[in-house]
Design goal:
Elements lengths: L1 E10 L4 E11 L4 E5 L6 H8 L7 E6 L2 E2 L8 H6 L1 E5 L10 H10 L5 H14 L15 H13 L5 E5 L7 H16 L3 E5 L3 H5 L4 E6 L2 E6 L8
Bound molecules: adenosine-5'-diphosphate (ADP) (2 copies).
InterPro entries: AAA+_ATPase (IPR003593), ABC_transporter-like_ATP-bd (IPR003439), ABC_transporter-like_CS (IPR017871), ABC_transpr_LolD-like (IPR015854), Cell_div_FtsE (IPR005286), P-loop_NTPase (IPR027417)
Keywords: ATP-binding, Cell cycle, Cell division, Cell membrane, Membrane, Nucleotide-binding
GO molecular function, one term: ATP binding
Length: 228
């Protein structure tokens, strides 16, 4: 599903080497936490995955596509195959919950009939059926993140990228979000989640990749022998 081969990223403006000789392989259906201190290169990894940045050298393959060679005009289509969840939710404030989720389908070729069946189904999945008509500002942080998750899921993406999705919500609600992501993962969706919350990571039995100074310093597929 995801393959980074000898990837290096140097930001030209500052000369900062954010990733060096970065190699990783993530299979379809895996749930991977990416952890590491501030400045380690986690966001750079996500930006490369989303093709917001290109590597300075190396190859990146996601879902059968070579991201280095992907033509600029094909990038929007590539991004539509990803479900992305951000720390700051990024909901449309003037749209209610239903429309925030439906909007993600309206920009694709999905029929009105399919939207009418798909949106309520996904809202039910994230436990927000009763909030369909609420505006984001009337929801708690945990609820807003569940709307963002519903929006990311509604297109059935094979890969979900979550960048610090629990950074702005209470610890008990954070657990719920990761629990929900884990349920989605059980249905076959690959999940890559960046976080700095070690307590949260240790509550789940998922692969943990630790990045520091632009390289992977630990990759624990079995969790058992992870000790920091
Ligand atoms: P993390 O997400 O783990 O905090 P980042 O990927 O944001 O790490 O940053 C890795 C390194 O790259 C840091 O030294 C950071 O200052 C630098 N960096 C990140 N983005 C840019 C940018 N757009 N221009 C220059 N340097 C950057
Ligand atoms: P939490 O403490 O879990 O972050 P809140 O106390 O903010 O959540 O909200 C509790 C419930 O009240 C939520 O279900 C939310 O949707 C609803 N709610 C919060 N603020 C408003 C509001 N201004 N108008 C309508 N409903 C609201």
């Amino acid at each position: 599903m995801i393959e980074f081969v000898n990837v290096s990223k140097v930001y030209k403006a500052t000369g900062t080497r954010a990733l060096s000789n970065f190699n990783v392989s993530i299979d379809r259906g895996e749930f991977v936490f990416v952890v590491g201190p501030s400045g380690a290169g986690k966001s750079t990894f996500i930006k490369l995955l989303m093709r917001e940045e290109k590597p300075t050298s190396g190859e990146i393959y996601v879902n059968g596509q070579n991201l280095v060679r992907l033509k600029r005009r094909k990038v929007p289509y590539y991004r539509r195959t990803l479900g992305v969840v951000f720390q700051d939710f990024r909901l449309i404030p003037t749209m209610n919950v239903y429309d925030n989720v439906a909007f993600a389908l309206r920009v694709t070729n999905v029929s009105a009939k399919d939207i009418r069946s798909r949106v309520p189904y996904i809202l039910g999945l994230v436990g927000l059926s009763g909030k369909a008509k609420s505006l984001p500002e009337h929801l708690s942080g945990g609820e807003q993140q569940r709307v963002a998750l519903a929006r990311a899921l509604v297109n059935n993406p094979p890969l979900i990228i979550a960048d610090e999705p629990t950074g702005n919500i209470d610890p008990d609600l954070s657990f719920e979000i990761v629990d929900l992501l884990s349920e989605i993962n059980k249905c076959g969706t690959t999940i890559v989640m960046v976080t700095h919350e070690h307590n949260l990571v240790s509550e789940f039995d998922h692969r943990v990749i630790t990045i520091d100074e632009g390289t992977i310093i630990s990759d624990d597929r079995n969790r058992g022998y992870y000790d920091e």
